[in-house]
Design brief:
This protein is α/β, with parallel strands linked by helices. Helices cover 41% and strands 17% of the residues. Helix 5 links the parallel strand 5 and strand 6.
């Protein structure tokens, strides 16, 4: 791991430590994150087989909280029984949000209308539980924002690992959303993400790794992990022309407010 400065009290608002990519390395990865200034990690279970694993991880690591839902690429597997299980599990106080849910037109792992229906179902589940929602959008920002505008009243959402343009980001902010930035803000071809990082109001920004995906420079090609969120935070701070500690303090306060940590 290599970074020039580790901002204090960072929160990685989106990681997949309960995925097979980590396994027995989940707790060591949390220790490395703590050494890098990461005080809290939100673990996202995107498949039913990960939900209990995520809750178990949070039980063994008090600085971990859970986000549970069905990934849009798996939306075809959605059943009433799965919905009932999810509603039961998110009553656990370790769960701080529903998701990730949304629309993915890149992989189209499930038919578009199925994704849309399951997305709307997740919004209703979150509304009923009084929880925020973590949104996945890939090549689908216009449609995601339309669903949120039509069906997301009373639900607070974060656009996780944002990869759209400034117009999409500001439209999302106008709907009450927060914007979460991940590793691509450090990439040479990540100019659009840096523009978003600079344009979004500071009180609506969050930072994440999306571990094990999207590792920031200079770790591209390797497995991402929560400790690297410090590198992403530095790149966001640079894009905004502020200090890394100021960025860390703001995004940490935003995360605590958004997820009620």
């Amino acid at each position: 791991m290599s970074f020039t400065h580790a901002p204090a009290a960072l929160i990685d608002t989106h990681a997949h430590l309960s995925s097979p990519s980590f396994g027995e390395d989940a707790l060591p990865a949390l220790a490395r994150a703590k050494a890098a200034g990461v005080v809290t990690v939100l673990d996202v279970g995107t498949e039913p087989e990960e939900w209990e694993l995520s809750l178990a991880l949070a039980a063994s690591a008090p600085d971990v909280h859970c986000i549970l839902g069905l990934h849009p690429n798996s939306a075809a597997a959605w059943t009433p029984e799965m919905e009932a299980e999810l509603r039961e599990l998110i009553a656990d106080p370790r769960v701080v949000a529903v998701g990730e849910t949304g629309l993915d037109w890149y992989r189209l792992g499930a038919p578009a209308e199925v994704q849309r229906s399951v997305f709307i179902a997740h919004l209703g589940i979150a509304r009923d539980a009084g929880l925020p929602v973590s949104i996945h959008a890939r090549e689908s920002y216009d449609d995601v924002l339309s669903v949120l505008d039509e069906h997301g009243r009373g639900v607070v959402a974060v656009m996780h690992s944002f990869g759209g343009d400034v117009e999409h980001a500001l439209r999302a902010v106008g709907l009450g959303c927060y914007i979460s930035i991940s590793g691509p803000v450090t990439y040479k071809n990540g100019g659009n993400v840096r523009e978003v990082a600079a344009a979004v109001p500071l009180d609506r920004l969050l930072v994440e790794t999306d571990s094990p995906y999207l590792p920031p420079h200079p770790h591209r090609g390797k497995r991402n992990e929560p400790a690297y969120v410090a590198l992403t935070a530095e790149a966001i701070a640079t894009a905004r022309g502020i200090g890394a500690d100021e960025l860390a303090a703001a995004t940490t306060e935003n995360a605590r407010r958004f997820f009620r940590l």
